[in-house]
Amino acid sequence: MVGRITILLTFLLGTLPVINAWSQDDALAEVNNNTEYVPAEADFDLIQDRLSCLEKDIPLIYNTRVHAFVNYFTVKDREYTKMILKRKNAYFPLFEKYLAKYGLPDELKYLSIIESGLNPAAVSSAKAVGLWQFMSATGKYFGLENDWYIDDRMDPEKSTEAACRYLKQLYNMFGDWELAIAAYNTGPGNIRKAIRRSGYKKTFWEIYPHLYRETRSYLPQFTAMIYTMNYAHEHNFIESELEYSQELDTVYVDHYVHLETLASQLNLCEDDLKKLNPGLKRGVVPENTKGYAIKVPLDSKEALALSRVNILDSASKVGKREIDYLARNMEGSTYGREKVIYKVKSGDVLGKIAERYQVRVSDLKTWNKIYGTTIRVGQNLTVWQKPGLVAKNIQPVFKQLPDGSKTYIVQPGDTLWDISRKFEGLSIEKLKSLNELESNNIKAGQTLIIGS
User: Fold this and answer.
1) Distances from the Cα of 390 to the Cαs of 169, 358, 395, in angstroms?
2) Distance between CA atoms of residues 446 and 436, nearest Å
3) What is the spatial distance between Cα 251 and Cα 305, in angstroms, rounded to a whole number?
4) Alpha-carbon span 296 to 223, nearest angstrom
5) 215 and 293 fall within a common domain
6) What is the domain range of residue 300?
């Protein structure tokens, strides 16, 4: 999982802040006169005492690392904390519901703040997505689908249940909530590695020096956020313009639905309907979807019930052809295609493989995370071909003639340097000599002798 930790690391790289004790009575008096007043950094012992009152199932150890993050959230970046206070009522009831369902500590609801800032559409630089910042593979393991149309990692309800299942699994692995929380950030493998390197110590703070820098900051942020959310008023945070979860109804559909049209039929704002359904990345439910749950405001239930067939029929026709074309033709699309594995042979180049399977070179590169043009003999390439396609037999780019000489057919984009790298013992100078070339200019389709 990847949260907003990297944004905060710079704050902690230098010397830890000097602790300036402040009088609570003086601060409160100042607050009464000035709502913009920002209290100084709070006394270490005072925060430690307050935090001890919050401790339940998860240890809330207080030290200078945690203290630094408390000061970050309460002094340095108050705007971020104000944003979280504004959003928390929109998501905490949902988190509390699923944490209770899986028998998990209620305090874990604060973890999503560290992960995503309570933003269901958050996407990290590492491509982790949603309130709980699932990577694609981990999300799919816990039942969160992710394709061109739909990303369940952005669905608050589905992703929250998946996060609870994952956290329960991690706790069962380690039997320790601090290690389970750290593992949520870095993965259980990295926690086991840190345990081994520490000489098989058993607590987070004992293995702390052996963790990645981001993970070392993860648990302290979590602890600091628990304190900040529970003692916000003591730091002069005034909660205003609060967001709340909306009462919703659910419409289950098994076919294409265009959200903009559905919003219009229900007299809703399109943006509001999309906000309730953030997992629909393209603003549509794709064709052949089985039982997809579209969320609508509860006060739309009556209008939908009166004309359900007509409303959904209208929403099933608009933009269908255009969105389907985009889905099938965007670079790297796998929509409606079948996966095959191709093993690279001697003389293969991306252009010929793409031609064989009637795909684009750019698609091949996207599917296989190839950033240049180099492929190696024996390499397995993932190819998503159209259903029922029979791969074309293409004239090989490399062959051996009856007289023993070997030839190569120049491919689009080839240079002498590219070709020389494909065959052992072949240099640019040798290529030019074998083919009596006076310059480095070659063209696609040209046959070159590469050896004998």
Assistant:
1) 44, 10, 16
2) 13
3) 10
4) 36
5) no
6) 248-328
CA nearest neighbour of 278 among 126, 147, 135, 152: 152
Please indicate, yes or no, whether residues 322 and 344 belong to a single structural domain of this protein: no
* pTM of the predicted structure, to 2 decimals: 0.73
**Better pLDDT: 5 or 161:** 161
Tokens at 446, concatenated: 């040209």
Local confidence band at 425 (pLDDT 50, 70, 90 cut-offs):
confident
DSSP for 385-438, written as a single string: EPTTPPPPP---SEEE-TTS-EEEEPPTT--HHHHHHHSTT--HHHHHHHTT-S
Confidence of residue 297 (pLDDT cuts 50, 70, 90): very high
Question: What pLDDT is recorded for position 355?
Answer: 87
Q: What is the pLDDT of residue 257?
A: 93
DSSP letters spanning 170-210? HHHHHS-HHHHHHHHHH-HHHHHHHHHHTTS--SHHHHGGG
CB 385 within 8 A of CB 391: yes
The answer to whether residues 194 and 207 touch, using CB atoms and an 8 Å cutoff, is yes
Helix 361-368 / helix 350-357 crossing angle, nearest 10 deg: 100
Show Cβ contacts of residue 318 under 8 Å, excluding neighbours closer than 6 positions: 258, 260, 261
Q: 389-405: per-residue pLDDT in tens?
A: 766 655 556 677 777 78
Q: How many domains, in total, are found in the chain?
A: 4
Q: Is residue 153 part of a domain?
A: yes
